[in-house]
Amino acid sequence: MFGKVLVANRGEIAVRVMAACEELGIETVAVYSDADRNGGHVEYADEAYNVGPAPASESYLDQEEIVDVAQRADADAIHPGYGFLAENAAFAARVEAADGITWIGPPSDAMETLGEKTKARTVMQEAGVPVVPGTTDPVADPEEVRQLGEEYGYPIAIKAEGGGGGRGMKIVRSEAEVEDALESAKREGEAYFDNDSVYVEKYLEAPKHIEVQVLADEHGNVRHLGERDCSLQRRHQKVIEEAPSPALDGELREEIGEAARRGVREAGYTNAGTVEFLVEDGEFYFMEVNTRIQVEHTVTEEVTGIDIVRWQLRVAADEELTFAQDDVEIEGHAVEYRINAENPAEDFAPTPGPLETYEPPSSIGVRLDHAVAQGDEIGGDYDSMIAKLIVTGEDRDHCLDRSKRALYHFTVEGVHTTIPFHLLMLDDETFVSGDHTTKYLDQELDDETLDAAVEHWGADAVGGDTPSASTDEIAVEVNGKRFDVVVEEGLPRAPRGGDAGGGSSGGSSGGGSSGSAPADVAASGAITAEMQGTVLSVAVEPGDEVAAGDVVCVLEAMKMENDVVASTGGTVASVPVAEGDSVDMGDTLVVLEE
Ligand code: ADP
């Protein structure tokens, strides 16, 4: 096994990898940019190296610097996490070529083959895996695309060879759109992936996104760990992932798992990977392979009990998989919620800022993968993810009930988050029934619903629909029972009355079962009820002289007798209430004149 591993990443995934290293007795090396000096992954690692300024291109993507640091630190392996350099075959090759350093991932040539989508499609077809109808060669000419449109029927998708996450993918609904779509897919491919080569696929109208986790060692063993359902997407980006899929039956599950195994075996693939499929009308079609650990690997770990990152390390160290395919059992259900610093009511725009409050949930069935703490700043340099909340239950229904509990108790203040969106989904019939397709959110989710969700559960009110404790809520004990009292806007914060001059006298007047009811004397001289209750007795009548602190009546409220006292002296002008009356908060009890 390795002695020291450099993790070429940041945030939660860097910490996740380091946790696996720690359990295997491996020392860890972090790299960080100027923006991440106080990053959670830096703190977690045994040693850490600054690799450059905030822009990823000058730090986390600086291949030479990262390999150099690995050598300086005497690390004997590099784990890339996901994103950044994780799917960069050239970087993998560079690490493979570096003296004394092992690449924790698939061989660079398998990455190269599977990273190019048309090559991957060819390999899969050779392995007898059904692929989405389309080309296995790049296309360049609009006329060619038009012919394909005719052959498959519109809509079709023009996809960048190097694409992913919906980037570099253009949907074409008619012949007239071909030319523009082709140009823009090429442009995006060039801009994001340095590769302007594109190909054409039939665009499925309402598919499920089903992906199979695979693990392969260097001794010819290939296992699949069942599927994940990532059908809940916004603009082709995954938002909630789960395992197992509510949409597969046992037979299709078996078929799709075996197809994934055949495909990666054909490609000479080792280590962890994901084979992605679209499923429509009971048929499945290969889409692409992700040659790395994925964000959502967690849900597979939860339902199989297999630590995928630990196996990435063991396989890279030439160990053999110790379990057979039949040993892999799926138990229970797991869902992952990406908690991002984004405002769902503003088109999910990132909202960088300080994590003023950060109180994640705990207790049974809750796993949290994160690298932040209260007080941290969520910066704008990298992705907006704060944490991944993974909830497990006996079955899907149980898991969703538990998820509500966990999300209610996830309190974040200072930045907007996707928590209100997740809570919305847990009340959404289509998601709850598992009938959603990849198109569901884009077609059905409207702005008003999102606005309302953020209003209801968002910002200050995150964590169970209660306003922020620091400003609007006070806790009181009445007869030993605790009440959280919301102080409405526009009403005085501290109870007034008693002391002349408006000092606080709202505390108990001494009797075990009686208190001094806060009374409000408005400018007009009205003493009003500060809470809803019943008038037990009236102590004054018109013409009486009262001094500040005198009891003018007694109210029963919250099962307790409360003396209502005058806060200033004066003559009683009128008493609009009588014994036995019910009064509301704000009702006038006694009017004084100076
Ligand atoms: P990645 O899985 O790396 O994000 P893609 O960009 O290829 O890769 O796909 C992202 C999403 O776009 C898929 O999950 C799916 O929702 C949608 N998609 C991709 N190809 C097709 C297709 N041919 N038909 C329908 N939807 C597709």
Automatic annotation (TrEMBL):
Q: Which cofactor does it need?
A: Mn(2+); Co(2+); biotin
Name the source's superkingdom: Archaea
Q: Which SUPFAM superfamilies match?
A: Glutathione synthetase ATP-binding domain-like, PreATP-grasp domain, Rudiment single hybrid motif, Single hybrid motif
Q: Which InterPro entries match?
A: Asparaginase/glutaminase_AS1 (IPR020827), ATP-grasp (IPR011761), BC-like_N (IPR005481), Biotin_BS (IPR001882), Biotin_carboxylase_complex (IPR050856), Biotin_carboxylation_dom (IPR011764), Biotin_COase_C (IPR005482), Biotin_lipoyl (IPR000089)
Active site feature: 571
Please report the stretch or stretches of sequence annotated as the Biotin carboxylation domain: 1-446
Gene Ontology biological process terms, A to Z = amino acid metabolic process
Compositional bias of kind Gly residues: 498-514
Domain (ATP-grasp): give its ranges.
Answer: 121-317
- UniProt protein name: Acetyl-CoA carboxylase biotin carboxylase subunit
